[in-house]
Amino acid sequence: MKPARQRLFAGYKLRDLRTRHSIGQAVLAERLGISVSYLSQIENNDRPITPPVLLAIAREFPFENIESDDQLPVLRAAVEAATDVSVPRDRIDEDAMQRAMEQQPLLARRLIAVHEAYRRSQEQLRVLDDRVESGAAEGSQLPWEEVRDWFQAEGNYIDALDRSAEVLRETLADNEPIDRAIEDRLRLWHAVGIERDDSDGTGLSRFDKDKRVFHLNNGLPPESRAFQLANLLVRLELPNEMQLVAKDAELATDAARELLSVGLANYAAGALLMPYGAFRNQAQAVRHDIDRLRQRFGVSFEQACHRLSTLQRPGDVGLPVFFCRVDMAGNITKRHSATRLQFARFGGACPLWVVHEAVAIPDRVLVQRAEMPDGTRYVVMAKGLVKPSGRFARAPRRYAVALGCEEIHADDFVYSDALSASGAATPIGTSCRICPRTDCDQRAFPPAASIIEIDPDVRDVVPYVFR
Prior knowledge:
- This protein is of the alpha+beta class and 467 residues long.
- It is built from 17 helices and 11 strands.
- It has helices at 11-20, 25-32, 36-43, 51-60, 72-83, 94-103, 105-134, 143-153, 159-171, 178-190, 222-237, 239-249, 254-273, 276-285, 290-297, 301-308, 354-359, and strands at residues 193-197, 205-208, 213-217, 322-327, 332-337, 365-371, 377-387, 397-406, 426-427, 452-453, 465-466.
- The strands form 3 sheets. It has a 6-stranded mixed sheet with strand order 5-4-8-7-6-9.
- α5 packs across α6 (94-103) and α15 crosses α16.
């Protein structure tokens, strides 16, 4: 059965057309073969524009576009604005928003514009908070911040590199381990010899360009050795692709551009080890079980988590997740979010967030249902990891990784199985400087610009209230 055609209420467009052509209602009605009263009802959005009228408009004004080519993106933006949980009252359901789009399209577009302005103001607030937290001067950025923000702006997905790495992977032998296949490619195509060094155990790898020898730390775990080999291969095979991406980035400093080159090589190496289509399909099949993914692709737990955060190919996106890595001091050293939770400005300061507990408990997966102040709930998986140094005199690296998605995607996220359906959510926040929660016992200081009140006769965990 052919689906019913959506009714088109676009009176404001028809009225605008008439005004631009300096035509009165009577003249336009005559040219379209309809009555003046019918035209007036169309312009007031009391009646939709029917297909015969659209054909008449196309005949009389062949270069005018009354019917939108694709209203779906606009409808999605309108629904998101109408149902945004960060605006606590008077949310509008999707059906009502669709009727509004049909009957009052200008009002719906105005709602979208106001919502976009609101979201921009919230992002600006996070940016300012990040500046205060880091102590950076206004308008200044450290090189690593430039690169981090560039990846965030790109959605953590670099299409040219991702597709090139996928093609490169297809040229490698699939009947042997990936590290062996990469070694063969390096030796046969690039005349690179591989030497496994374990004399000092300090560095990860070193490429001697003159001698064409790649020195690889033999103390690294197998998945780390494979990553180092993949990193060298993409630098030798995809230099033009990486240079074009770096050129378009337009970063401000030489240091940032050099760091971006390192980041692009790391990205391409991950895409080579975990090719987009195969990795996305397998991730969906195992409900994003990290342990099963790392075994299937021969990568580390962290590498698999990071790769999941890059699955943003247009028309073929993966589960929208956030990912970050936190060290023992609570610093976030990697971060990306394809959800409303923007870790690029989150800071990781909330002590109620499960990732801080995971740092102290290595090799154990912790799961949390977390709720942000705007009411959005997330299922969060965090795991503490230890990277051995390979020698007694050098301390191992300890940190935790966190991966999460909005609760509406819980059925596609295996870690949600550890949570009861009716369980309470842990109320977490952004940094205390911009967190509005008034009932948090873990608050370090009141929000910026708040008015605090202190009653010396009332003793509580937090010695003040604010408004």
